[in-house]
Specification:
Order of helices and strands: HHHHHEEEHEHEHEHEHEHHEEEHEHEEEE
Number of domains: 2
Oligomer: single chain
Helix content: 40-55%
CATH superfamily of the largest domain: Aldehyde Dehydrogenase, Chain A, domain 1
Largest sheet: 7 strands, parallel
Shape: globular
Radius of gyration: 23 Å
CATH class of the largest domain: Alpha Beta
Number of strands: 16
Structural class: alpha/beta
Amino acid sequence: MDVSATLENIGIAAKRAAAELAFANPELKKLALINAAEFLWKSRSEIMLANSKDIEFGKTKSLSDAMLDRLMLDETRVQSIKESMQAVAEQAEPVGQVMEEWNRPNGLNIQRIRTPLGVVGVIYESRPNVTADAGALCIKAGNAVILRGGSESFHSCRAIHSAMVQGLVSVGLPDAAIQLVPTRDRAAVNKMLTMTDYIDVIIPRGGKSLVNLVQREARVPVFAHLEGIVHIYVDASADPEKTFDVVINAKTRRPGICGAAECLLLHKDVAATWGQDLISTLISKGVTVNADRALQKIVGTKPAKDQHWGHEFLDMEIAVKTVDNIDDAIAHIRTYGSHHTDCIMSESTKEVDLFFGRLDSAILMHNASTQFSDGGEFGMGAEIGIATGKMHARGPVGAMQLTSFKYLVRGNGTTRA
């Protein structure tokens, strides 16, 4: 395959499709997604068969159990993908939505309204559901999308993409509105990063090496989805029962997702008392605990090393550190965090306000599992990723975040003096 020529053709088709989608009837877009969800469900056997090929490929690549879990699709997960697509379909139409309106003393009426971005490029690893999430959200927001899935999810992505295209075709929308790069060749990634004539924004969703590559090489604007180096700070006032529930869920429910807790910061008073039982419980659940010197007396812990701070394990592993107070916790998070998601367990309004006010992560939580760091859980139906930058989109990137805006200025023969 001539990767460069293939991507050029994909870009040309995407640009044409985006021009058509920008003015598409909202009901057509909605029906396309509803139909795509039904096609997806009807083809679930084929999707799971394709996924089994990817699982076998992942095993040959020695993917961890947590990474294989990210990759795996069963009937329950296919149903979840279907429901996410249906939820996106039912959301309010973002394109044309009036964001702000005002009148000027000179008689001008000014509106700021939502408009599509154009063509979105999504480069992702492991999770095949991103194919459906990204496709649905981009269509809802009136964008065409070029998808480049990971080599380990190649067959699953193709099967899901086929259902998405059937949904578009069923209502007469251009099939090029959702295109999947048909190769595992890494050259396709490098090509997408320079397609300034065709792609309006790139969204990377994957590990640190992928995101670093995209940020370093991209000539197209990027919505950065950085590592999920997620911290939970357990304050002296924290409720033990709530904390046990939240921490265990945040680490063990699905350790391979970006919202999984990776570092536990224990106030010294907690570390000296019931915090030790919390660590023992994590160990009993199969979590490898890398503990600082003050906590290494706990049976089953391993000595924490410098590289464990600021590390995204994406597995049943966590780093645990003792801190003197909330100021120490905030300092640690500022040093080692990734501005993704951080949580405080506390019953003190003062401490929570300090945590929320002094940290600048895209998502800050109080007494809630960081596994809720997800666009679907935020009511967005789905997400393309968690944007950790500060320009344009931040936090879960849903349909609204995949729009830009323009100004409509209306006068009545109005002239400027």
